[in-house]
Structures
1.
Amino acid sequence: MVIQVQRVVLHHVRVPLKKPFITHLQRVTERESILIEVTDMDGTIGVGECVAFSSPWYTEETVATAWQALENWIIPSILNKTFQHPDEFDACVSPIKRNHMAKAFVNHALWDIHAKKLNQPLWQVIGGNSSSIEAGVVVATTAEKGMIDDIESAVSEGYKRVKIKISKTSDPILLKNIIGKYPNTMFFADANGDFTLDSLQQLKSFDDCGFTLIEQPFSELENNVSAFAQKMMQTPFALDESIASYQDVAEMIDRRSGKIVVMKQGRVGGLTNALRIQRRCLGESIPIWVGGMIEFGVSKAFNMAFATLDVVKFPGDFSSSTHFWEQDLATPAIEVHHGVINLSKVPGVGVSWNHEIIEQFEVGKKQFNAQKNTE
Ligand code: OSB
Ligand code: MG
């Protein structure tokens, strides 16, 4: 099945969140993003969504750096190119160092086209074997009262897993009491790298709170400290920011700096790399779960396809579209029923961009066309 890239359209959007997403690193009130549509020779359209943020608070990439990489290097290297398979995209952009998030959503658009041409849902194409996944929600607020209210409503909405953002100043006794009230709910803690060797004792005080796992306790620059701390703690660490590549996963396994991988396809450069990581983790019995990036339905749909794989052992950051947005830019919107999300059975990733809504939030747009052979 051949893909020949004929046209690429980028939409630059800014969409307000229903309520601020607060961590010790950043207060996010608006989601700026780049949406992509890649059109093949035969008119098949593939979609993607860039997960870089407005500023480099989570990783080094931003919307601006992604736009520049796309315009100058990534898009020119795929226009008019013929791909037998989306995996070939990676070799095509290998002269461009890193820029994982800028590459990832172009890789996604090619996977969407590929699955459409195979006439199969993406989750089936990549070997997933379930048409539904378990939902999970993230509580990201600093105020104690707000956190308790958000957890209460998440549980009443049916979420089976709640992830709480923590920092070295969080109160472990308060968290232990809250978790104890919900014996049927799984709780994750995400520290976004706030702990250091100096605050190891604080981290250890979270060990008997009842968290299933602690996500990224230390900075991605301190994987050695993470390995040291993991030996002293029962609660498994799940690494997020530390995993930017297949090699980072290999290093996590070798050094035992964590026991679980948080998959974010944008952070590792796309679905092709995510699947390579998946094969390694399956071979080493390392569980994966799928993280979120405050996304619209297109990026979430790629995440959901990945979440149907056997290697994924925990519910991911999958909340309904209405959790972050008044209206999702993708259609159909994500709906959670009794803590479960049913995946689309249509060919491809299963969602498309809603142009009517995108127009309301668009702040820029650019179209790139392949050179025509005019003779
Ligand atoms: O650390 O997992 C993170 C959102 C933005 C940036 C980093 C993270 C997050 C989340 C997931 O916690 C939010 C979601 O999309 O559900
Ligand atoms: Mg995280």
Note: DSSP finds 14 helices and 16 strands in the chain.
2.
Amino acid sequence: MRQSIKSRLSSTILVIVLLTIGIISFLSNILINKQFTNYISKQQELKAQIITSSISQQYSTFTDQWNMDYVHAIGMFSLYEGYIIKVYDKDGMLLWDAQAHDMKLCNQIMDEISERMRIQYPQLNGDFTSVSQPLSQDGNVIGSVSISYFGPFFLNENEFRFIHSLNIILLSVGVLSLVVSLLVGHLLAKRISRPILNTVEVTKQIADGKYEARLEEKSDTDELQLLITSINHLAESLETMEKLRKQLTEDVAHELRTPITILQSYLEAMTEGIWEPSEERLQSCYDEVVRIGTLVKDLESLAKLEKDNLHLNKQEIDLRTIIDQVVSTFEAESMNKKLLITVQGGHTYLMADLSRIKQVVVNLLSNAIKYSEEGCNITVALFENKDNVGFSIQDTGAGIPADELPYIFERFYRADKSRNRMTGGSGIGLTIVKSILHAHGGNITVQSELGQGSTFTVTLPKA
Ligand code: ADP
């Protein structure tokens, strides 16, 4: 059966408290009662002895007489205490008998005691029994006394009151602790369940697409605080992802709009006969189609990269060898633009994904070539320190305006848009570079001055 945390916690606490109170009261009741009745039994024996010795003292050997006034007083006193006595002299003659003295009082006292004991201890099955004891003085038997009292033990009124108050105290303590524990249990359960319920509420909102929802409250329970932090973190990640998704859709639409508008207007003009479909115009249309194709290809590779970046195929690679290989693939292009590419630095090794690092070098070097005019210099310099390796690619080309520098690693960002339309870039190359380097735990920085050239510096951890 499913239950809320609150009711489960409350009921568990209630059961534990009930059990504890039950066990404690059961044990204390048994122990106290046992101790108390033992004590009472002993007291009764003692009392019988005291009665016996007190009566013994009422006999005078000189006069051979009993002080009957005192015997009577002792007898009556004992009667009120629940001891019914009969005193005999040494010849067995009855000297004093409580029942003979006041039958009514005796019966009343006996009934009271029997009634009280039967109610309080129904399982005791007690009754009045008599014990006969010799009366002696200086070792001489001077008579005997028969003491009759409720056995195995009985409680007088004071003792009854004591036991009764004790039971009431125990009961009150039980009831009080029950109430307190119910209250504490309820508060505790509320304190634990409230943040969980709030978390559920916020996760529902997140599931409904309200990614800006956050849990504001703090919990002093470790696990709950962890839950709150994780949910907030999750919401934050989802919010960022949603922003990026929207941004990407906007960017893609924006990037496609220009070539498609151009294509549309050219083709319209040609189909409507306003323009002659000359080779030059068809070439323009073709260029725009190629641009769209490049954009889609770049997007595909970025998507693939972002998907695969979690699985890097790391191996020991030599940066110098990779750079040399990439430089040689750009040989024809650099010769066309009369660019001088020099590579400085020895072999540096690191653990990384070969094809991805190669892609980084390709993108950076192709940019350096793309944005350099004829006769410029490009220098690739390798470096190494204790934990990191890296390289910088410096060109003496166009440079990047200072206010555009912070954005060049963003998707689709192209500095100096009109110029870049001519160079055919889609603004994804540096995004790919950054993504690969981050997946490796590395980073990239850029220094550039408009008209002077740019330096891109890549740093990667060795392991
Ligand atoms: P693109 O495909 O447009 O080259 P990138 O992401 O590789 O896209 O580069 C983003 C922008 O950064 C480029 O459009 C360009 O304006 C600028 N840029 C990148 N590298 C260089 C460089 N070496 N010199 C000057 N500008 C550069």
Note: The radius of gyration is 53 Å.
3.
Amino acid sequence: MCRMTLMIILGIETSCDETAVSIVEAKGDLKSLSFRVLGSAMHSQVKMHAEYGGVVPNLAKREHQKNLPLVLEQAIKEAGVDLSKINIITVTIGPGLEPALWVGINFAEELGKKLGVPVIPANHMEGHIASVLLNKTGVVSFPVLALLISGGHTELIFLKSWVEKERIGETQDDAVGEAFDKVARMLGLPYPGGPEISRLAEQAREQDIHLEKKFPRPMIHSEDFNFSFSGLKTAVLYYLRDKKEINKMAVAREFEDAVVKTLITKARKAIDEYSPKTLIIGGGVIANKALRENFLKLKENYPDLEILIPEKFLTTDNATMIAASGYIEYLRNQKSDRELKAQGNLDIS
Ligand code: KG4
Ligand code: ZN
């Protein structure tokens, strides 16, 4: 099959609590890629897991099994293409919850056999990087520095190309999204807490409300590119424990300011060291308004740096980014050692 022709990719994502299918038209090579979404559908389990304060793996598995066929049907209907037109299926194999990942993998394998098309294993975090390609047609200038901020990961990845990638920093303890979710829980806010904290912090800014105390900006002076968020979380815990009257808005704002300052400082340190041409920020936490605004402002300090942030609906888990990342994996055209097997801790490769 000629690579420059249009390919229709079916992406499947079941790594956590979203069951998602997307049908994407892809074209180009590793130097110039473009994508067009034909149809996508998603079923979120957030409400169900919220009762437990977090994702319950076996419930997630059961829900994915129940919903995946329906979500596929919806996506196909929206795309208006027949299943027989699909050229490649791609499915998340990790990182994520293994029981949940297996549902997608088994489903993809069966469908691949039925349609006689290859099934390409996709890496969820590489999907978050690829999420910026959906609103940008054409060429990404390498090297790229990617900051990934999600519920399970906080990492800095340096990419010389779509094939050569290296992790240069990561969190030593909690992921930044996890810190948002835990602090939200301490404040009595529902799961997932990121959007709730974000909402309260925005209200505090509108009303010019500050906390009388500053929380730490962890590891901003360390020489490496690593992160740590558990100390910040504990600082919030102690503050809430010792204080009689709590202003949730002020706490949310101060916590968010600490996160913004920490992520921006570390990203700048890595930009200064690695001189990337492009900065990509991916993962659910970049849905956050204050983070989006502050990262875009970096342009003032680095006028030549291209800053790519996914559209808001592509920041949290979705199958469109998996289709894009699976297509890149397909184009790599090297004997990948990736197996079609759930890998909870799968690394960038
Ligand atoms: O990428 P994602 O959808 O799933 C994982 O791969 O983990 O990220 C989910 C994380 C959750 O921790 C959620 O609280 C956080 O993203 N999040 C936010 C916002 N929206 C989602 N965090 C801060 N502000 C937001 N607006
Ligand atoms: Zn994710």
Note: The chain has a mean pLDDT of 95.
4.
Amino acid sequence: MSIEKTFVAIKPDGVQRGLVSEVISRFERKGLKLAGMKLMKVPVEMAENHYGEHKGKPFFEGLVKFITSGPIVAMVWEGKGAIATCRQVIGATNPANAATGSIRGDLALDIGRNLVHGSDGPESAAREIGIFFKENEIVSSWDRNNDCWITE
Ligand code: DAT
Ligand code: MG
């Protein structure tokens, strides 16, 4: 398993509900390493680009409206197998099917208010990091003094 970077965002519902620290702590405690983070409002064009694969679906308009409705916390997390691991920490798309112990399983009820976004593969991770972050906003592979206790 290689060291990967993935894009994760706390959606407007997570910020509004005061769950920013709760969500961040779950990725931190897992052992992932924070490589970028900012609070921002997403412009409509950026939201449409980010969710481009869903254009034309019945929920697309509502999704763009929701994601642009308030600030999000955009993040890059790094670690061994980080892309799939973050998806597991986040849980299934519909909170009704998300495992207990996952963010959506523990903290959300509705598919349209599922708190967190995570890239679903290497291509989308690279694409989404590029949409939300400039190169100089990412701190790659910085030395963490407990790395040897997390990754062999
Ligand atoms: P995920 O966010 O788990 O990657 P996705 O990429 O399939 O899920 O969809 C993006 C978001 O769109 C998802 O987090 C919530 C919303 N969404 C997906 N399917 C939906 C549906 N059937 N009805 C309403 N919203 C939906
Ligand atoms: Mg997705």
Note: The chain has one domain: 3-140.
